[in-house]
Amino acid sequence: xxxxxxxxxxxxxxxxxxxxxxxxxxxxxxxxxxxxxxxxxxxxxxxxxxxxxxxxxxxxxxxxxxxxxxxxxxxxxxxxxxxxxxxxxxxxxxxxxxxxxxxxxxxxxxxxxxxxxxxxxxxxxxxxxxxxxxxxxxxxxxxxxxxxxxxxxxxxxxxxxxxxxxxxxxxxxxxxxxxxxxxxxxxxxxxxxxxxxxxxxxxxxxxxxxxxxxxxxxxxxxxxxxxxxxxxxxxxxxxxxxxxxxxxxxxxxxxxxxxxxxxxxxxxxxxxxxxxxxxxxxxxxxxxxxxxxxxxxxxxxxxxxxxxxxxxxxxxxxxxxxxxxxxxxxxxxxxxxx
Length: 338
Ligand SMILES: [Zn+2]
Prior knowledge:
Elements: E1 3-6, E2 9-13, E3 20-24, H1 33-39, H2 44-58, E4 63-64, H3 68-74, E5 77-82, E6 89-93, E7 100-105, H4 110-132, H5 138-141, H6 145-160, H7 177-187, H8 191-199, E8 213-219, E9 231-238, H9 257-272, E10 278-284, E11 293-301, E12 304-309, H10 316-327
Parallel strand pairs: 5-7
Antiparallel strand pairs: 1-2, 1-4, 2-3, 6-7, 8-9, 8-12, 10-11, 11-12
Zinc ion binds at residues 119, 123, 149, 152.
């Protein structure tokens, strides 16, 4: 599927329905490289977004998925898939010193491959800015190794998931797992990458937004222990709960409401083929620091189950309406503790 964003307007067609929606994006202001270099040190995240916008403008990219290979090739950067033991990708200067090759691990999945090329292109753009800017090189060179890596991740996310392709996700009320999956597919990025990009733009600061985020669970039964929960946390995307990352890989406790919800979803999916999105209102999750009551959206996707933890003050009627329009899901309000 191909979506397009033509200067000020983004068009996207939904695979679940014949209707096309047209969304007005903010007027695009041309990006100047030297402005990016000026803000690079103090606002690297903002600079990364601006650099991605600059690359899309320079290459006249009007459609998504973003053609990352042709962007690299028109920058005269070659791409090789090869054996890389310790990384997804690397930027290698060519022997004659005139160009660069991006090497990507042959173990990378299709989505990781695209993200790794975009990340290495970020390193390349930094090198190119160093050699072409009329500003002092120190402004660019001063990025520490750690900040440069973060910069390239932010750049890759903003390049593959441009602002103009996600203007219709402005609030928590516009977010459903089904909508995220649909747009991630259209952009040819992973749902994890898409969820990170969307969630970082939504409010998390007020008290009612403290525990908001997304979790991905994998079904992985332990043959030797029939009592262990078969669900383990495969990804955790939270902005106010930094500690959630350290629970990735952990099995959830067997005696929790979250386990019941996941088991029910798994059962419905694999026994009856039900893949619709379910809304559970004000249930205790009983998992890690998510100890209060939460309203969650749950949907099985690609052999995993995604859980979106919504803010306390979210307008549930808007979410239900959004889900119904997007995928005609079956809504369930299940009393686990009657
Ligand atoms: Zn890197």
